[in-house]
Design a protein that fits this description.
Rossmann fold, about 30% helix, alpha/beta, seven-stranded mixed beta sheet, nine-stranded mixed beta sheet, Luciferase, domain 3, GMP Synthetase, Chain A, domain 3
Length: about 550
C-alpha cells in the first residue's frame, strides 16, 4: 500500500521562490572589488533571476545546456545560480584561480555555450582568450565594464536582461535532472566534473541547515567566505534562502580587514571558510587588542584540518566557536561535522577543544565506511588507518564524461582518497590523503598531524610535511616551515613542539625554512608541487 501524500519535485527554483514569498525582510548584501556594498532582498533576487532566465531562453538556451561562470561571491552570481538551474540549464562554476590549461580543459569538457565573467577576474579569461572552445557562443560580463576584444560575442548582464519583464513561471522539472556542474581542483591531473541534480542539491541544503550542522535560521546573517566557484560555496547560497536567512556576499576582497568590516557592519552571525582565511583573521585580530567582535559569530572550517591552536585562539580570545566539517566536491560537499552529541555533551571546554581537531560524524543522508588495505573494516581505536568511503543522497555516482571511474566501487561506494582513523564514538579524523601519507619502513606517518602540531609554534605561519628519500627507510618526513614576519625560530624549537605528541619515529628528520609554500586553487597546500620541488633531496643514511 502506498501513502496518500502529495509529491512535488525537489527543485532549486523552489528554494528561491520560498525565500522571496516568506522572507521578504531578509537582506542581500553584495560587495564589489572596491568593497562598495549594494543591498537587495530575496524578492529582488528572484526578479533578477527570472529576467535572466527569460534572456537566456530568448537566446535559445535549452534545458541541459551548460552555462559557465567565472566570478566571486556577488548578487549577479547569485542570480545566475537560480536563473540557469531554475530554467532547466546547468550552472557550471569555474575557478578563476586554476591554471589557464585547466580552465581551457574545463570549458571544453563541459561544452559551455555561454560564459558569464566578473570583471574582477577578466585577466583569467584573457589568458585563455585564444583558446575558447568552439561550443562557446558568447561571453557576458556580470557588471558594467569595458567590453574585451574576444573571438565570440561579448555582452553585459544588465543590458542582456533590460528588455525582460521578470514575469516568468519556473518550470516543473524532473528533480533528477542536472542542476549544476563543479570540477575538482585537479591536484593530481586534469579536473573532473561532478554533476549535481536538483534533488541532491535540495536535500544537501536541507541537511546543512540542521542544528548540528550550519544551524541556520531566519534570524541569521550568513556570509560564505568560501567562493561561489568552490563547490557552490559549500551550498550556502541554497541553504540561506531555504532557512530565510540574510546573505552577505563579500566579493573578491577577502583580506582580514575587509572581512571584519563586513562582520561588524552587517551583523554577520555565521560564516564559512578554509583554514587559511581563519588563520589570517586570527593573526590580524591579535595584532591590535582593540579588535573585538561586537557579537561573536559562528564559524565553520573545512578543506583541510584547522590546527587546535587556531580554534583555541578564537574561542579563548574572542568567544568564537569554530565547527570543524569535512567534505569534497564529489559530495556536494558536506560529509561530516564535529558538533557535540550525547556521549561528549558533558566534556569541559578544554577537553572538547582538543577533540575539535577531528572531522566528526556523518550527518543524516550520508553513510561512511573505512577499510584497510585488505578491504576489511578498521578498528575504532584511533590508531588503525584506512581509506574513507562514502555513499548517500548527495554523493557522486561517477564523473561527467567519465562513465566508469575507479573512484566508485562495484557496490556503489565513493572512494574519497582520505586516510582516516575512527574512535569509539564513530568519529573520523583525517590523518592524510592516501597519496600524501609518508611511508617509512613500511609504516605510515601522517603529514597532516605533523603540520598541525608545527603550526602550534608561535613563530610558524605555515608548515608542510612531505616524504623525501632515505636510503634505509625509503621515505622519511621533511618539515618545511614559513616563519611569521619578524621571527627567527630554530629547527630545534619547532621539533620541541612535536616532542611527546607523536611517536619518536614520526619525528621529522629535517626542518627547512622556506619563504613560501605553494597552494592549490582552493587554498590547500599543494603537496604534488612540493614533492616535485624536493624530489632530488635525499637524507643521509
Amino acid at each position: 500500500m502506498l501513502g496518500l501524500m502529495q509529491e512535488h519535485p525537489l527543485l532549486v527554483s523552489s528554494i528561491l521562490r520560498h525565500a522571496a514569498r516568506h522572507h521578504r525582510g531578509a537582506k542581500i548584501v553584495s560587495a564589489d572589488a572596491e568593497g562598495v556594498v549594494s543591498r537587495s532582498t530575496w524578492p529582488d533576487v528572484e526578479q533578477g533571476a527570472a529576467k535572466l532566465a527569460q534572456a537566456l531562453i530568448r537566446r535559445g538556451v535549452k534545458p541541459g545546456e551548460r552555462i559557465a561562470t567565472l566570478g566571486w561571491n556577488s548578487r549577479e552570481h547569485l542570480e545566475l545560480y537560480y536563473a540557469v538551474s531554475g530554467m532547466g540549464a546547468v550552472l557550471h562554476t569555474v575557478n578563476p584561480r586554476l591554471f589557464p590549461d585547466q580552465i581551457v580543459h574545463i570549458l571544453e569538457d563541459a561544452g559551455d555555450t555561454h560564459l558569464f565573467v566578473d570583471p574582477a577576474v577578466l585577466p583569467a579569461l584573457m589568458a585563455v582568450a585564444g583558446r575558447l572552445p568552439k561550443s562557446l557562443r558568447a561571453v557576458v560580463l556580470m557588471r558594467p565594464a569595458p567590453l574585451p576584444d574576444l573571438p565570440v560575442e561579448v555582452l553585459e548582464q544588465g543590458a542582456l536582461c533590460a528588455a525582460e519583464s521578470g514575469d516568468y513561471g519556473w518550470p516543473e522539472l524532473d528533480e533528477r535532472s542536472a542542476s549544476s556542474l563543479c570540477y575538482t581542483s585537479g591536484t593530481t591531473g586534469m579536473p573532473k566534473g561532478v554533476l549535481y541534480s536538483h534533488r541532491s542539491t535540495v536535500l544537501h541544503a536541507m541537511a546543512s541547515i540542521q542544528p548540528d550542522v550550519f544551524a541556520l535560521s531566519a534570524l541569521d546573517v550568513a556570509m560564505p567566505v568560501v567562493p561561489m566557484f568552490h563547490v557552490n560555496a559549500w551550498g550556502i547560497p541554497y541553504a540561506a534562502p531555504m532557512a530565510g536567512a540574510s546573505l552577505v556576499l563579500p566579493g573578491p576582497k577577502l583580506d582580514p580587514a575587509s572581512l571584519f568590516r563586513l562582520f561588524e557592519e552587517e551583523g554577520v552571525t555565521f560564516s564559512a571558510g578554509v583554514p587559511t582565511i581563519w588563520t589570517l583573521l586570527l593573526q590580524w585580530l591579535g595584532a591590535d587588542p582593540s579588535r573585538k567582535f561586537a557579537k561573536p559569530p559562528r564559524l565553520v572550517v573545512g578543506g583541510t584540518a584547522l590546527p587546535v591552536s587556531v580554534t583555541g585562539g578564537f574561542l579563548g580570545e574572542y568567544g568564537v566557536n569554530i565547527l570543524h566539517a569535512w567534505g569534497m566536491t564529489e559530495i556536494s560537499p558536506l560529509g561530516s561535522v564535529n558538533s557535540r552529541k550525547a556521549e561528549n555533551a558533558d566534556w569541559d571546554a578544554a577537553r572538547f577543544l582538543d577533540y575539535s581537531r577531528k572531522q566528526g560524524r556523518p550527518q543524516f543522508g550520508v553513510d561512511f565506511r573505512v577499510l584497510d588495505g585488505s578491504g576489511k573494516p578498521i578498528a575504532q581505536d584511533e590508531v588503525a588507518f584506512g581509506e574513507l568511503e562514502v555513499r548517500g543522497h548527495w554523493v557522486a555516482a561517477g564523473y561527467f564524461n567519465h562513465e566508469s571511474d575507479p573512484a566508485v566501487t562495484e557496490d556503489g561506494w565513493f572512494r574519497t582518497g582520505d586516510v582516516v582513523t575512527l574512535d569509539a564514538l564513530g568519529e573520523i579524523e583525517i590523518v592524510d590523503r592516501a597519496k600524501d601519507v609518508i611511508k617509512s619502513g613500511g609504516e605510515w606517518i601522517s603529514s597532516i598531524t605533523l603540520e598541525n602540531l608545527a603550526m602550534g609554534h608561535p613563530d610558524v605561519a605555515l608548515a608542510a610535511a612531505i616524504p623525501v628519500h632515505h636510503p634505509k627507510w625509503d621515505e622519511r618526513p621533511l618539515l618545511l616551515v614559513v616563519r611569521r614576519d619578524g621571527t627567527d625560530p630554530t629547527p630545534e624549537s619547532i621539533l620541541a613542539v612535536l616532542e611527546g605528541k607523536v611517536a619518536k619515529w614520526w619525528m621529522p628528520d629535517r626542518v627547512e625554512f622556506v619563504e613560501t609554500l605553494p597552494l592549490t586553487a582552493t587554498g590547500k597546500l599543494w603537496k604534488a608541487e612540493l614533492k616535485r620541488q624536493w624530489k632530488d633531496f635525499s637524507l643521509p643514511g
